[in-house]
Amino acid sequence: MKSTAWSRASRLAKSSWIASGARRSCPQRQPSPSRLLRCQSTGKPPTNLQLEGKTFRTDSWTNVPNSVLPLLPRRLHLQPSHPISLTRELVESRFPSSTYTRYNNLSPVVTVAQNFDSLGFPSDHPGRNRSDTYYINKDTVLRTHTSAHEADIFRQNASPGYTISADVYRRDAIDRSHYPVFHQMEGARMWDRRQVWGRDIAKAVWKDLERMPKHNIEVDDPNPTVHPKRNPLQADHHSLEEVEAIAAHLKRSLEGVVVELFSKARRNIAAANALGSSPEEPLKIRWVEAYFPFTSPSWELEVFWQGDWLELLGCGVTKQHLLINAGVPDQLGWAFGVGLDRVAMLLFSIPDIRLLWSQDERFSSQFSTIDKITPFKAFSKHPACYKDVAFWLRSSSSSAGGGLKSSAQNFHENDVMEIVREIGGDLVEGVTLVDEFQHPVSRRKSMCYRINYQSFEKTLSNQEANELHEEVKAGLSKKLGVELR
Questions:
Q1: Residue 292: CB partners within 8 Å, gap ≥ 6?
Q2: Phi, psi at 435, each rounded to 5°
Q3: pTM of the full predicted structure?
Q4: Element (H, E) at 56
Q5: CA distance 189 to 142
Q6: Which residues contact residue 65 at a Cβ distance below 8 angstroms, ignoring those fewer than 6 apart?
Q7: What is the structure's pLDDT at 107?
Q8: Nearest Cα to 165, choosing from 114, 104, 219, 74?
Q9: Is pLDDT above 70 for 444?
Q10: Contact 283/263 with Cβ under 8 angstroms?
């Protein structure tokens, strides 16, 4: 399921320190592997790409940058003691392997059919655009969500339930909560009409629910299970009794995840004297009606954490057409999806998503096991360096977005983000649109972006930031065809 559609992390406030030209001393910067790859990426893409042990022919759709390719083998969700891996383990612990098969090592290279067609994405859906998705070639992409594997797993029918955790890839903004690679986890639980007594799904589900552990946390769930307009029943496929039972099983299962994650985090953070509120303050959750394309009825689960309600995950009763298309029409059940990066950042108090990719021992040594969730302690704090770039868009063009020449008609902000990310890598903390206007006579459109250059490891001198910034401006001019101001 497309979990980033379920919960978007809030944009975090940026540092107010502004470098206005003052030089700062620092050691000579050594080019990182990603920077060396980026410097070699100025020409045409290679004819073939070697990914996951296979060779893929490139074509006019290819837009995977060299800054992303080295991240494919990292698999943070499988690295021992990494915050994302620990978060995955905590969630998995609530879904017993006797019922739920775990899929944690599926290849990120999938077909367009798997990523979009199998889920019913219309041909004109914006998610298919090269401005949003990394294409290896016309028929192959880096998965944009774990649901790319959903139809295949339903078709295999290996067990009543499953969980998937994986790295997923999208062209996106540059800020403290977004990265071109992030991690999702989804799960599903099905019941088969042919395998339950009297084809009575509701009775079978309630029986399974009776065996599940209970909790004593406060739950706010004021709405009916279904609503004809807000949260409709799939009346052609499900009875109200079946959905009432499935919804109860789903909510109990995911409430257990909240108990596992946040009760443990609360105890450890309180022990470290990092939580301002009393550790005895009861954990609270609430269910909110929602809309997702793959479930109905659907809900978001929110948790009250450190004084605020936070969207945690999305879920619902699986759309029956997905199961019919997968060849298991007699099955029905629920599914959920959650962003592991967001939850890990909340649990471990990690302020910037770039830190999750750090290979600095000062970061990795702070985390150990799921029994010890402690808040991240900053090991460095270096000042930001802000630089602005302004440009005119071309007045007309016949090209499309996704990294080609840009006019006001086809300009996409993600193209700017990709060029900045390809050049600056993790030395860029954020990119923000600060001004735009249209000339009253020529009707040409002008854009101005502010780029924050900031390293976790050292202070960047103004000269170093200027060198990067000049490369960014040259890249924007060359790749987007914009006129610098």
A1: 1, 2, 5, 6, 298, 314, 316
A2: -160, 145
A3: 0.82
A4: strand 54-57
A5: 26
A6: 38, 41, 134, 418, 421, 422
A7: 97
A8: 104
A9: yes
A10: yes
